[in-house]
Amino acid sequence: GLAGVDDQSFNASAWQGVQDAVAAGVATEDSFFLESGEASQYQANVDQMVSQGCEHIVTVGFDLGEVTATNATANPDITWTMIDNVLSDPETFAPLELPNVRELVYQTDEAAFAAGYLAAGVSNTGVLCTYGGANFPTVAIFMDGFTRGAQHYNEVNAADVRVLGWSVEDQDGQFTGSFTDMGLARSTAESQFQENCDITIPVGGAINLPAGDAINDLGLDAAMIGVDADAFFAMDQQYASLWLTTVEKKIAPFVTKAIEEHSEGTWTAGAVVGNLANDGVGLAPYHDWEDRVSDELAAEVEQLLADIADGEIKADYVAVGY
User: Fewer Cβ close by (within 10 Å): the C or N end of the chain?
Assistant: First the structure.
C-alpha cells in the first residue's frame, strides 16, 4: 500500500506479522520492508527483494495484484504472500493459480455489517456516513457491509437510519480519490457532518484522521469507526475518545502463520479467507464509548456477530477469494 509502513493500520499490521515471525524464530533477523511512495516503485522494490535473496515476499495491498502475479511467475522458487487481492492473469484478468502464492483476503463486510448495526443503535441523529480513498473492492467492502448493517437495524427495529456516502444499489459512493490528500478528506468529512451525520467510518488508512480533526475542532458530539487495526491504540492519542469501535482485519497473525508454515514445510498456496468464523475479522472493544452503548444493544451486536459467523444471517455480499 502507498500509505507507508507507519500508517498505523494496514501496512503496519502486515509488517508486525513479519516481526512476530522473526520473534518466533521462523524468519531471519535480516527480514526487511520496502515502502512504495507511488505505484511506479512497486516493481523496483520487488526487484530489490529478489536480488537480496528473499525467500518469502509479502506484498501488501489490492494495488499490488498485477506486480505479484508477474513476479511470482518469473520467480517460482520464491514464496509469496499477497494481502487483499487474488491472482488474476495480467492480460486476460482470468483467475490465476500459482503454486508459490498464498492470497490473504478478508470477508470484512461480515464485521462491518455488525458495526453498521451498532452505529445505527448509538446514533442520536439517525444519520451515519462513510467515505473512502478509492472504489477498490477492499475499500468498498467496508462501506457496503456497514450500510447493509444499518439497513438491517432499520428492519429489526422499524427505524429509519440513513447512511451517507454509499449506495448498495449503485455499488458506489463518496470517494476522495486519494489515500494521502488530508485536505480533501477533511472537506469531505465536514460536508457529511453538516448533513447531521454523527458516526462516520472513513476507509483508507489515515484519511480518517481529518474527520477526527473536524470533530475536535468543531466540538461535535460524533464518533468514528476505525478500520483494519484497533484505532484506539493504533491512531494518535488525540483521537482516542472518538472511536466507537474498529472493524478489524487480523492481518498480522495470518502473515505470521504463512511464514511459520513456510519454515515448517506445511505451507500451501491459494486463497485464505479471514472471516468471523475463523477470527480473521471482528469488532474491537467500544473503549470510551462503552457507556453510550446500552447493554441491550451490546447484546444484540454480540448475537449478530455469532449469527453471521454461523451463517444464520447473510452479511457476506462482496465476493473475495475465488
Answer: C
Gyration radius (Cα) of the chain, Å: 20
Alpha carbons 144 and 169: distance in angstroms, whole number: 10
Residue-range definition of the domain harbouring residue 17: 10-107+251-274
Tell me, rounded to whole angstroms, the distance of Cα 37 from its chain centroid: 20
Q: Is-above-0.85 flag for pTM?
A: yes
Helices marked H in the chain: 10-23, 42-51, 65-74, 108-122, 137-157, 182-194, 209-218, 231-234, 251-264, 295-309
DSSP code for 25: T
The residue type found at 42 is Y
- Judge whether 118 lies within some domain: yes
Quick one: pLDDT at residue 92? 84
pLDDT tens for each residue of 35-44: 887 888 999 9
The type of residue at 3 is A
Cell 453538516, residue located:
194
Q: What's the CA gap between 210 and 155, in Å, rounded?
A: 32
Q: What is the CATH number of the domain that holds 238?
A: 3.40.50.2300
Q: Looking at the 3D structure of the chain, how many domains does it have?
A: 2
Q: Are 293 and 163 in the same domain? A: yes
Is 43 in contact with 220 (CB distance < 8 Å)?
A: no
Instruction: Centre a 10 Å sphere on the Cβ of residue 264 and count the other Cβ atoms it contains.
Output: 9
pLDDT digits (tens, 9 = 90+) for 62-80: 889 999 999 999 999 999 9
Statement: residue 94 has pLDDT above 90 = no
CA separation for the pair 100, 34 (Å, rounded): 21
78-89 burial, b if ≥16 CB within 10 A, otherwise e?
Answer: bbbbbbbbbbee
* 33 and 173 together in one domain: no
Cell of 20: 512476530
Three cell numbers, residue 110: 461480515
Flag whether 3 is in a domain.
no
Asked whether 124 and 196 are in contact (CB, 8 A), the reply is no
CA distance 277 to 235: 27
Three cell numbers written together for 258: 504463512
- Residue 275: its H or E element: none
